[in-house]
Amino acid sequence: MKTTTGAFLNANDNVNSYPKLGAYDVGWIVLCIGMAIGSGIIFLPIQMGVKGFWVSITSLMIAYPAVYCMSKVYLQSLSATESCDDYANIVTQYLGKNWGAALGVAYFIMLLKGMLAYASAITKDSASYLQTYGVTHHSLGSSVWYISLLIGAMVLIASRGERLLFRISGPLIVVKLSIVVFLGVSMIPYWDIRHLGIINFPNALSFLRDLLLTLPFSMFSILFVQILNPMNVAFRKRESDRRIATFRALRASRYAYTVLVVCVIFFGFSFLLSITPAEARYALDNNISALALAAKVMSGDVVRILSTLLNVVAIFTAFFGIYLGFHDALKGIVVNAIDRVIVRSETFNKILPLCIAAGTIGLLVAWVVFGISAMSLMQITVPVFGVVSCLIPCCLIWRVPALKQLRTPSSVLVFLFGLLLVASPFFKLLEH
Q1: Structure pTM?
Q2: Would 145 be classed as within a structural domain?
Q3: Is the per-residue pLDDT at 1 higher than 50?
Q4: Membrane-spanning regions, if any (predicted)?
């Protein structure tokens, strides 16, 4: 299918005439923030404490601009197609069905790990909390009916569309972000400039190794690329002019990014100033999060309540956010395969979301019930993120003539950052 450059703004466009920021835009901003705040932000301070000031600040200076450019390039590279239904469909319009299928599978794998991890955490953690707070006498974490009901309810809510998610997730995400800021503020009385270790600059080889190992933590602390294509599709459906749809998606992404950068940098450095390298190393060796370290300045009950609240809210809101992308990925794979053999009917298009929801419930329930390990998926997560979020959009930009306007230094930065993400797990072998 033919693509054009009509999605891109030019100097003659009057953006002041474009729609002002409205409730729908704010809803997507909130979902982007909710998608980003998860385990990455909770363990970032520990990694910063272990690796020290120079590695931490350099990692953030590389990762945060790269994430901004990545999000922009990612959205723009998916915005120039005539139609916009799902990720695989967009790639198919650029490169054909075979590339659409292959890259659609890569996109699916990127999101699959998150879905499986969140499904397991939702069931196990919620069952544990119900028992801890005396709601149940024993844990329901291994009960098939409890797992099925909980996951079924979550998928049904998420599959109803973004407007319902705005109403459900919005207040929860505000609570989540407020807890993060509160934790950072609570550490201020314990700031000590000596904890930064500014005078201790590591040798060049150790610095490079630790920098590459810290980059994924920095990236995941503000990353919401999983939800960008669903947001892109949603705005394309609401706007007949692709330029306006792209403008609104980029604006929502930019606002979410700004809020995240300010809050996460404050959160991370507040803890870095408050804990010693020895405390950070102990936390890392014992898999302790920043929440547990906060116990040094707050009572045990407060930490327990905040930990429970943040954990539950983070898992639920992240699940809702990633489901939109997961549905988008799975739909793309199915449609790509079906279109090769039959012409889809309206009836098929209507029942497809129901079939995807049912299949997702079955997959997640089976995963949790059988307790399958997610270690293999966790090990490939970072390289897959690098490939899907950085390398693929850049390859599209340099291969597709319709995207030649995006061949800028930003796209080169994104490509190089993608290579670093692909290589970063291998440097773990060099860590002592």
Answers
A1: 0.82
A2: yes
A3: no
A4: 26-46, 52-70, 99-123, 143-161, 173-191, 211-235, 255-275, 305-330, 351-374, 380-400, 412-430
